Amino acid sequence: MSNKPNIKPLVSIIIPFYNVEKYLSQCLDSIINQTYKNLEIILINDGSSDKSGSIAKEYENLDKRIKVFEQKNMGAGATRNAGFVKSSGEYVLFFDSDDWLHSCDAIELLITRALQTHADIIIAQSRAYRDKDKNFEDMPHSLRMDLLPQKEAFNYTDFPKYIFNFCVGWAWDKLYKRDFIENHKIAFSEVASTNDLYFVFLSLFFANRISIVPQILFIKRIQLLHSIGATLYKNPLLFFEETMKLKKALLTGGGGGARPCSQKVYDFLLIFFVCFFSL
Can you give the residue ranges of the Glycosyltransferase 2-like domain (predicted)? Predict the structure, then answer.
């Protein structure tokens, strides 16, 4: 048996969807046309009432890499967790069904960086697409290049002051190494809103190696009312409960980790909470 590393590891792309018949094809076309072909595309219909399910089935019939699953409506967090269990890739991307990949080599660039740096998390830059007026908009806040350590891979200890604000706490612009998620027992919160917060911040904190692709690889559709992410409304109580859950995990080294943080790191979460609901 060869001991050589897999130079083309399987990448699982997990896509929950709910009533996105207008956008699902664009999302899937951007994925199946990637130059990187060793993909497993997990589509989970979260109780859609439009033609999204039929569109997903059509793509499943066209591309053997696509697997479609049906479930009652559970929300994005629970659906992503279900998708992760059903997936088998060495690397995982949790993607949104109304977004799309900016270039046909996006996955190739992510996985190349992952293999070069042995990173647990790889993050790329994004651009917003305003659905209302059909215009694109840069999102420099989504990845603060000016805050990053001058290293090919870094972690919390390199810049503890900025670990929770050098990037945005959403999951779709990050490629994760599967065994990192499993070893730290990190999962999405199964709540109506803020379900990315716990998963993303906890993973950023516990990752031994985080690396960056300094190019725009993702297009984020905004001002959309009917996607599975539309439940991410501002609910102060839920947000605060998630912050408390994250505090407990961080201060105790929870989530399967062993790196309890300082009170200063937790203090940032409270500042984040106050600023978010002041907008």
Answer: 12-151
